[in-house]
Design goal:
Length: 161
């Protein structure tokens, strides 16, 4: 059985040119796909429906700062930026919500942010991968949107180290 690809949609994305592998990624987790673009000044989130629509823009915590990775919360109320030394969460207006440092460890080994809806009121929680202080082990922490650690666990298997 042959599989024949077909073009479903075509979008004109401002300023993208050939930068997608370095600056952008698709988020297919919702009912309508999204495109997250890392710009020098902000993270921009576009919805790829019948047409492309800018849904949210999150200014970088440090203007013209570089980042290793960027993540937007599913409800687009905030974004988490990872640089070489920490994770920083910011609101759409650029105000800082919290910062979680890697300590003396390098950023290249960490870089994992996830989001969950938990609690009786289905609040957004942020799941971070951090250094545990033990070689070959990662610490996974669940934070509320204020940056308070709600729970943490060390990866004892070493699978994530």
């Amino acid at each position: 059985m042959a599989i024949t690809p077909r073009l479903v949609a075509k979008y004109r994305i401002p300023g993208i040119r050939h930068a997608l592998p370095d600056r952008g990624r698709f988020d297919r987790s919702g009912p309508i796909p999204r495109l997250l673009l890392k710009e020098p000044d902000a993270l921009r989130v576009y919805e790829l429906g019948e047409d492309i629509e800018l849904l949210a823009e999150f200014p970088r915590p440090t203007p013209q700062g570089s980042s290793v990775n960027d993540w937007a919360a599913p409800d687009l109320s905030f974004a988490v930026f990872q640089d070489e030394t920490s994770y920083t969460a910011v609101h759409r207006d650029g105000s800082r919500m919290w910062r979680q440092s890697f300590g003396a460890w390098t950023a290249s080994r960490w870089g994992h942010v996830g989001f969950a809806m938990a609690g009786p009121y289905r609040e957004t929680q942020v799941l971070l991968r951090l250094p545990s202080g033990t070689v070959g082990k990662s610490l996974f922490a669940a934070l509320d949107t204020a940056g308070n650690v709600l729970a943490s666990v060390v990866d004892k298997s070493g699978m994530w180290g």
